[in-house]
Amino acid sequence: TPSKYPTTILSMPKLPQLPGAENLASKVLDVSVFINWPMMHEAKVVAVTDICCEVRKKGNKATTVKKFSDAESERWLTDSRTIEQQYAMGNGIPGSGGVRIGEAQIRLRVVPLQGMKTFADGSTKKIFGKEEADVPLQMALWSAPAPDPRFVERGPMTLSDLYPVGCNVILTKGKHKGCIGTVVGVSGEKDEKKVVTNVRIIPPEPPFGLAIARSVKESYVSSHDAAKVLHLDPSVFGKITGSLSVDPGRYDLGLNLKYKEGLCVSGYTRKKNFVEKNVADSKKVNPWLVGDSLKVVGSSVSKGDDTKKKDRTIWEYTPQAIRLVAAYRQQFPSLFSAISRDTTNKGFYNAKHLFGPNGNEMLPKVRKWLNSIETAKLPRIPATTIAMPLSAIAAIQRAAEVRAAKLAESGSGAESNIRVPPSALYRENSTKATDVAAIENRSPPELGDRIANLCANGVPFGARGTVVSIHNLSSGCVEVVMDEEFIGGSNLQGSCANFRGKLCVWFHLLKISAADSSDLVEHMVPPKKSTANSDSCSSAVSIVTPKKCPSSTEFATKSNDEKDVKKHKIEDEMVTNVSTGLSYNRLQLKAVNCKQAGFKEASGPKGTLTFKDIGRKEKCGYNGWKKHISRAYKKDSINATSSTIELDAA
Q1: Which of 179, 176, 157, 158 is nearest to 168 (CA)?
Q2: Would you call 185 helix, strand, or coil by DSSP?
Q3: Which ranges of 548-620 would DSSP assign to H, the alpha helix?
Q4: Long-range pairs of 359-362 with CB within 8 A, sequence gap ≥ 24
């Protein structure tokens, strides 16, 4: 749409009638041009099109001409008009627009320059992308307005220049992969020259990272099964675990375990479609090797953007999340009752509708309780991120510390001079900002992979660590926990110890896990299913939840007595599950052994009212509950009166 503010627009002079694509092909194909005005960037022309045909050349093959049909010519003309309008008014990206280019008679299909690739002999070469951009001929320059010396190709170098004496290197292949050393010199004939390196040899390590990642897993159930465990309506469960706005004051009374923006809480929620898609794609093709890292004006939209819109969002929950919802309902039952009665409400709720006449006073209390639970301070991560449980990260840290202590006691790490071919070495600080990552034969990351640092910012050269989180493929980043503390490290938002964590680009790290590590782990740790059904989840929650919450009037009546409210408070304690190593908050409910089909009744805190003494005489549970409360209050009043009489007598 036209701009609402005064705008300066450049108008290009009208071009004369240009020759057709077939006549221009021999002069423009395989030629470098500069596009992406006003920040000009180099690209290589791979095809030229006009309204009649497309002329293309792939590599060293002969030029091919594709004639357009009437429909294809009409589509080409429509696309040209759209491009002309986007250059004038913008395409929704800041910085685009502001140029009237005139009629687009010829369009170029180009691939942008991604960077420089350095080979083992020191020579460099320009690397162009694979995703084509569609650019009008008049928006391409045939010479660089400001040549950049960083993008100039050079020939091979000598080994003495590539690996000077005294420089630090790391071995990238062989049985000593990941070991660091110092260059001593160069030896051998011209064709068989090798670098003599003083290497500090570290004994092979067991794949403890992969073993821990395999053994310590969290079970997930669907939102429908989670609601079934708690005897809740699925829509009510979804509102409670998300965002719930209440007026006055716009209080958010939801647990915020999930967000519409695609955020979740690790260890509590996840999106099923993203996890399954990542696993399926990794089995078919290595997604970390697909796509360009740099795009320009005219680049086609990546295919992944369309698939995300078609994905169906299915949220899954862990037993920890279900326990948290149960504790929330135990603390504020009237909130759940009111939402259950009005499941069609998709907007804002009113405090008096949820909590009765004293609703405005209840809002700060509920918000205070939500701020005190364990998820209040946990970070929200993208749903596309695959992360280890916190207990698994703690176990990996401990395993790394134990291994480091044993290596120090045994005095291992003997130094030895080894003749290494240059293709199996990486020199410290040899990667530049313009270099393209060497991604040949690089496997995608896996949780628990052991790594050594090559050129990650802020991490010591050659430092070892373990992958604990894998982010979206478009970012190409992973989170690692290093074996030792280092300056520049973080705690990964509370996931690990201080100065141990770091967010790194995957191609800046060297995977040192052995190729057969997965097979070893298969024998060491039997595979476990990462999902659970409602029955197993119900037993894991270990609480008794009523099928119907008390009404809001009953809650308001009980809340009038402050002493009675204090009796109904339930304290939380940290419980560690020894079998899984998971730590979670659970209600202090002690199970009482019963012989009723193996069912264990959960008794409440001392001094609370229960149905245990009512029996089955009453036909209506509501009437029985009212009578039981009245009898309990009468009993309390009689006890209070008798104690007063005794005090007076004394």
Answers
A1: 179
A2: strand
A3: 552-559, 562-567
A4: 360/248, 362/332, 362/559
Window from 257-266, 488-497, 573-582 with minimum mean pLDDT: 573-582
Alpha carbons 382 and 480: distance in angstroms, whole number? 17
* Position 268, amino acid: Y
Contacts (Cβ under 8 Å, ≥6 apart) of 399:
208, 209, 212
Cβ(168)–Cβ(133) below 8 Å? no
Q: What HEC string does 51-65 produce?
A: CCEEEECCCCCCCEE
Cis peptide before 248 (omega within 30 of 0): yes
* Residue 255 clears pLDDT 90, i.e. is over it: yes
CA distances from 292 to 69, 258, 282, 307 (A): 31, 31, 18, 18
pLDDT for residue 73:
94
- For residue 281, give the H/E element and its range: helix 272-284
Q: What is each CA distance from 185 to 161, 163, 167, 418, 636, in whole angstroms?
A: 11, 8, 10, 11, 91
Contact (Cβ atoms closer than 8 angstroms) between residue 588 and residue 574? no
Instruction: Find where tokens 């992308």 sit.
Output: 129
How is residue 301 annotated by DSSP?
P
Residue 254 in contact with residue 239, Cβ under 8 Å?
Answer: yes
Crossing angle of helices 333-341 and 552-559, in 10° steps, is 160
Query: How far does the chain reach from its first CA to its final CA, in angstroms?
Result: 89
User: In this predicted structure, what is the pLDDT of residue 547?
Assistant: 40
- Reported as a pLDDT band with limits 50, 70 and 90, residue 498 is very high
Q: What is the largest CA-CA distance in the chain?
A: 119
Q: What is the pLDDT of the chain when averaged over all its residues?
A: 78
What is the chain's alpha carbon radius of gyration, rounded to the nearest angstrom?
Answer: 33
Rounded Cα distance, 470 and 387, in Å: 6
Of residues 35, 32, 28, 70, the one with CA closest to residue 49: 28
Given a cut of 60, whether residue 18 has pLDDT beyond it is yes
Q: pLDDT tens digits, residue range 550-588?
A: 433 343 334 444 333 333 333 333 333 322 333 333 333
Lookup: tokens for 90: 């913008």
Query: What number of other Cβ atoms are within 10 A of residue 4's Cβ?
Result: 6
Q: Residues 405-418: pLDDT tens digits?
A: 888 888 767 888 99
Residues in a beta bridge with 599: 596
CA atoms of 13 and 36, how far apart (whole Å)? 19
Give the residue with greater pLDDT, 623 vs 130: 130
Q: Write phi, then psi, for 322 (nearest 5 degrees).
A: -65, -40
CA distance 507 to 489: 19
DSSP string, 215-240: HS---BEEHHHHHHHTT--HHHHHHH
Query: Do strands 349-350 and 245-247 pair parallel, antiparallel, or not at all (unpaired)?
Result: parallel
H, E, C per residue of 40-107: CEEEEEEEEECCCEEEECCCCCCCEEEECCHHHHHHHHHHHHHHHHHHHHCCCCCCCCCEECCCCCCE
Handedness of CA 415, 421, 422, 424 (dihedral sign): negative
pLDDT at site 537: 57
The string of pLDDT tens digits covering residues 579-611 is: 233 333 333 323 333 333 334 444 544 555 555
